[in-house]
Design brief:
alpha/beta, D-Maltodextrin-Binding Protein, domain 2
């Protein structure tokens, strides 16, 4: 009986041992399969991350309509990027809400390098002070790539206004009791905010008249119903050159070759009035740094080329360029400059 019990125990023990060994083997096989998959996944992820960019067309969202300065500039830059990267860089115009429509779409886009944004001081700087609620945070939503170009503004006067430069305008504004208004392309535009900056610096009170498009102000300026206008340079160069309007100052540190007789704001005693329409390229936050660097290199190559400089001069723009860090620092300085002016003037948009 004892021998039988021992035999049974031995048989059972053998079964348990064999079953345990089989379980161990099965567990080892599962572990090896899992370990193999875990080892392969980082390699696959690295392979995807290392995939060359771009492998398909890149869309550049533009906050303004076709034919505007931003649209024209980006198409020139894109032609160079097409050639460099062997893929199409396509401008997609999404105008509206002073740039917020395109900027909001870019902020929500996948950070994969296939959606970029050309933007100006409006959606990147001013709008967060102008609008109570934005559906994106310009300071966090975008990765700076490169500054593209800038074009100063021009302050022009009606031929019936008895001033010939900015100094005379300020003196006139301090003594004149009649209407003294400046027309721009809209409330909250850079031109409108620049008028508020001039009021603050000079201690005067020039009023504001909003026009849907800049050319609408021309008849009123010619008749004298509107005394002043502040616009981007391309708008009024022909009229100033012909003598139809008086160029009082350009909001830059250097005189323009096209308007050599129009003094700068520095020469007029108001260096703090420097203002410009600047254009820069951004990607959604989180876009890989190697893609940012590639686009930055391509943009700078174009801006530094003879062809690029010539093309920009033809649209009254000056190339900028530089690193993403330099663009980020420039935006900080613009925030510090324009934010207080907008708040003090209590300019609000809905």
């Amino acid at each position: 009986m004892l021998r039988g019990s021992r035999a049974l125990h031995s048989e059972v023990s053998g079964t348990i041992v064999r079953d345990g060994q089989m379980a161990i083997k099965r567990g080892r096989r599962r572990f090896l399969r899992a370990f193999g998959a875990a080892a392969i996944w980082p390699l696959a992820a690295r392979s995807l991350a290392a995939e060359p960019w771009p492998t398909r067309p890149v869309t550049v969202l533009c906050p303004f309509a076709a034919g505007t300065s931003a649209d024209t500039l980006m198409r020139l830059v894109n032609a160079s990027l097409d050639e460099k990267f062997g893929q199409n860089f396509i401008v997609e115009d999404r105008p509206g809400a002073t740039g917020n429509i395109a900027a909001g779409a870019a902020a929500r886009a996948a950070p994969d390098g296939y959606t970029l944004l050309i933007a100006t001081v409006g959606p990147i700087v001013n709008n967060k002070f102008l609008y109570k609620n934005l559906d994106f945070d310009p300071d966090r939503a975008f990765a700076p790539i490169a500054a593209l170009a800038y074009s100063p503004l021009i302050i022009v006067g009606s031929p019936k206004l008895p001033v010939t430069n900015l100094r005379e305008l300020v003196a006139y504004a301090k003594t004149h009791r009649g209407p003294l208004n400046a027309g721009t392309v809209g409330v909250g535009s850079q031109a409108h905010i620049t008028i508020q900056l001039l009021n603050k610096l000079a201690g005067i009170s020039i009023g504001h008249v909003s026009y849907r498009i800049s050319s609408q102000a021309l008849p009123d300026l010619a008749s004298g119903d509107l005394q002043l206008s502040v616009q981007y340079i391309p708008t009024f160069v022909p009229q100033v050159q012909s003598g139809m309007l008086r160029g009082l100052a350009v909001t830059s540190h250097k005189r323009l070759p096209e308007l050599p007789d129009v003094p700068t704001v520095d020469e007029s005693g108001f260096p703090g009035l420097e203002a410009s329409a600047w254009f820069a390229l951004f990607a959604p936050a989180g876009t890989p740094r190697d893609i940012i660097d590639k686009v930055n290199t391509g943009v700078n190559a174009y801006l530094q080329s003879d062809a690029g400089k010539k093309q920009l001069a033809n649209i009254w723009m000056t190339p900028m360029g530089g690193t993403p860090r330099q663009l980020a620092d420039y935006i900080k300085s613009e925030n510090a400059k324009w934010g207080p002016i907008i708040k003090q003037a209590n300019i609000r948009l809905e």
